[in-house]
Structure formats: structure tokens, C-alpha cells
């Protein structure tokens, strides 16, 4: 029997109500599916981005043959001779391909994005940078003792994440090996050119060394940056008392490098600002002030001034300097210098800040240096990145002076 919809029971839903309910149900289903797709896409994109980050800065895969260098030590523990055994060393390569950019804006965007990817440390790490020491990288080595031959064996394997010490944003690292307290006799690895993740794989033998004397020594490793024309720059050090090591078999260690104990960590700090103007193709460097500078004179003070070098592809382009502040370890300079830097040259540009002690009767002394570029140390990279991200605005930051 046909029943009139209008005559339906009061509790039954009408046709219009059913139609609206169906439309709402379909809309909600589509929304849920789209949200699920969005989350899936985000996970996929996030995974791809993570993978791209993981490929940045990985050490080269080349490995060399183990090399042996020996020091023969009589019962007195003094070195008599060294005899390096030749071996094949890994070939160091660095991939620095750059792609042409269609416009200045594209280049600026590219620089910003690359710095976000390559600069070490997360935003959280950068926020706590002021309360933690600078990362100097780490080193892998092995040590063991042969009781039959009375020989201590030290193998230097590799290092990772070393800081850049050169104008080019890299370093030429090598390792010195000591058995403290004897610092007169030392052994050295080969120099690895332009490599922040070097592989040495070199073995060193301390021969004729009685075990009872070995356990009284401290193995001291110092990583340095080789410089052909000046003093080698210290990168970091590791020391390990041999009486705390099980020398009956070769033990392998990963150790974080610590600042070298040569006073380089107490050279003082410098406050400076950078202001980048992309339309004018210029960077303004403002040397603001310094604090707690190292005393270089006999009277316990210094006569500081600041040199600012503009470097392009390891070549000195232009130099500026401040006035000299007499007998002042906390000088205030407030001097600004403008440098013309085309946007397309920012990749290969480094600004070197050197705090000097003026001396009338002899050569001026270097108190400390700062290297500013997009591929320097973590603090310097952060300052450079902030300058690019905030054009036409002075960006100030304190920097620790380095040897």
C-alpha cells in the first residue's frame, strides 16, 4: 500500500533530512581521505629531506694501506731513530660543484637554503651554543702493547667534523703523537689536504719500551692544521693515561677533541656586526668592541687594533683596520668598513678579522683571529647565515678569538 511521506510517523526522518545527512557524510569522508593524504605526503617529503641531509658532509670513502712508523726506545725510554714504511694513502677529493643561477634573487635564495642544510647543528643546538664549548670534531685511534717485543703500538685511523682553519673554509690536518711527559720525541702522520674528515690509517711503533714505563706515560694526540708559510694552527687534542687502558690487546677509541692547552682558548672575544645589502652588492663590517683580550706586553696589557681582510678564493682583495687602543684589554672601537661584494661571489668570500697588539720596537703580535664565511665554524656560519637572512639589517654577535 502506498503511504504518503507527509503522513509518516512523527518520529521518522523526512526525505530532505536524509539527503542533507548523506551530503554531510560524504563531505566528512572526503576530508578524512585528504587529511590522510596530506600526512602521507608530509611523511614522504620529510623522509626525502632527511635523506638529503644525511648525504651532506659524509667523509670520503677512500681508504689507504696501513703505514708503520717506528721509534726504538731503549730501557731509558728515549727515541733513537724513526723508520717510516711507505704505503699508499687515500686520495682526498671534495665535491664543490656549483650550478649557474638565473638571477640574483635565485642565488640569494639558494645561498640561504644551502646554509640551512650545510651549517652544523640544529636550531636547538644554536640556541644553547653560548653555554657549550665549540665542536672541534673527534678522532679515532687504537693502542696496544706487545709484551714479547716490548713495543707499544698506536694506530691513527681517522677524524671527523674538524673545524675549518683556512681561508677556503677547510683545513690541512695532521696528527702529532707524544708519550708525555716526554714532548721532545714525537711522531707525525701525513698531512691530508683540504679535508675535514681525513683518513690516515697510519701505525706507529714505540719499540724497546718496558711495560712498567709504558703505564707511567700519557698518550697525547694533537691535531693541527698545516700551514706552509706560518705557524701550524692547533685544532684540538686528546690525552689518555695508559695505566687506564687494557694494553693486552688493541683497543679502539673515539674521542672528542678538546681545545689545545696552549692558551688559545683565553684570547678574548670580539663583538662585531655584519650588514648585507644585496641591491648595493656590499657588506658593512662594524667592529664594535672586545673584552678580556690576552695581555701581550710585559706590563700585563695590550695595545689592540683590528685588521679586516676581504678574501676571495684564498686571495686577499682588500684590507681595512681600526685605530690602536693604548693599554686596553676591553677596547671599544665602533668603526665600520664597507666592502663591495657581488652577490654571485658570496660563495667564495671570506672576511678575516684579526685582533693585533701594536708594538713600536718589534713585530706586532697576533692576539686572535675570526674567519667569517658560509662554510667556517658553527658560530661563524650562524652569523653569516643570519646576515643573509636579514638583508639591510646590522646583525651583531660575539665571537671567541682563535689562534
UniProtKB/TrEMBL annotation:
Compositionally biased spans, kind Basic and acidic residues: 90-100
GO CC term (a single one): phagocytic vesicle membrane
Domain C2: 135-255, 266-399
Classification via PANTHER family: SYNAPTOTAGMIN, SYNAPTOTAGMIN-7
Family that this chain belongs to: Belongs to the synaptotagmin family.
SMART domains noted in UniProt: C2
The protein, known as: Synaptotagmin-7
A single MF term (Gene Ontology): calcium-dependent phospholipid binding
Annotated organism of origin: Daubentonia madagascariensis
Gene3D superfamilies membership: C2 domain
Amino acid at each position: 500500500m502506498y503511504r504518503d511521506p507527509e503522513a509518516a510517523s512523527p518520529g521518522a526522518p523526512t526525505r530532505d533530512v536524509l539527503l542533507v545527512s548523506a551530503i554531510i557524510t560524504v563531505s566528512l569522508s572526503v576530508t578524512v581521505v585528504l587529511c590522510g593524504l596530506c600526512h602521507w605526503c608530509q611523511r614522504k617529503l620529510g623522509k626525502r629531506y632527511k635523506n638529503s641531509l644525511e648525504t651532506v658532509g659524509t667523509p670520503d670513502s677512500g681508504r689507504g694501506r696501513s703505514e708503520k712508523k717506528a721509534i726504538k726506545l731503549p730501557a731509558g725510554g728515549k727515541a733513537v731513530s724513526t723508520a717510516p714504511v711507505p704505503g699508499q694513502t687515500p686520495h682526498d677529493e671534495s665535491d664543490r660543484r656549483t650550478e649557474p643561477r638565473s638571477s640574483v634573487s635565485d642565488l640569494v635564495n639558494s645561498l640561504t637554503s644551502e646554509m640551512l642544510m650545510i651549517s652544523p647543528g640544529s636550531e636547538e643546538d644554536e640556541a644553547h651554543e653560548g653555554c657549550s664549548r665549540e665542536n672541534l670534531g673527534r678522532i679515532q685511534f687504537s693502542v696496544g702493547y706487545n709484551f714479547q717485543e716490548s713495543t707499544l703500538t698506536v694506530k691513527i685511523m681517522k677524524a671527523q667534523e674538524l673545524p675549518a682553519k683556512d681561508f677556503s673554509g677547510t683545513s690541512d690536518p695532521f696528527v702529532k703523537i707524544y708519550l708525555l711527559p716526554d714532548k721532545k720525541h714525537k711522531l707525525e702522520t701525513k698531512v691530508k689536504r683540504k679535508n675535514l674528515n681525513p683518513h690516515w690509517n697510519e701505525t706507529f711503533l714505540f719499540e724497546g719500551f718496558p711495560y712498567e714505563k709504558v703505564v707511567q706515560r700519557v698518550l697525547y694526540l694533537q691535531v693541527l692544521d698545516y700551514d706552509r708559510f706560518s705557524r701550524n694552527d692547533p685544532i684540538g687534542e686528546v690525552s689518555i693515561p695508559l695505566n687506564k687502558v687494557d694494553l693486552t690487546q688493541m683497543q679502539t677509541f673515539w674521542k672528542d677533541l678538546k681545545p689545545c692547552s696552549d692558551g688559545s682558548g683565553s684570547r678574548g672575544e670580539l663583538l662585531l656586526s655584519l650588514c648585507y645589502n644585496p641591491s648595493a652588492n656590499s657588506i658593512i663590517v662594524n667592529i664594535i668592541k672586545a673584552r678580556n683580550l690576552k695581555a701581550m706586553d710585559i706590563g700585563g696589557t695590550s695595545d689592540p687594533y683590528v685588521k679586516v681582510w676581504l678574501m676571495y678564493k684564498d686571495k686577499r682583495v682588500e684590507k681595512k683596520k681600526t685605530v690602536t687602543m693604548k693599554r686596553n684589554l676591553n677596547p671599544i672601537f665602533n668603526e665600520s668598513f664597507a666592502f663591495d661584494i657581488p652577490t654571485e661571489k658570496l660563495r667564495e668570500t671570506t672576511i678575516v678579522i684579526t685582533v693585533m697588539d701594536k708594538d713600536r720596537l718589534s713585530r706586532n703580535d697576533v692576539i686572535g683571529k675570526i674567519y667569517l664565511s658560509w662554510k667556517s665554524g658553527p658560530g661563524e656560519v650562524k652569523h653569516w647565515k643570519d646576515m643573509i637572512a636579514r638583508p639591510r639589517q646590522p646583525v651583531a654577535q660575539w665571537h671567541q678569538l682563535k689562534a
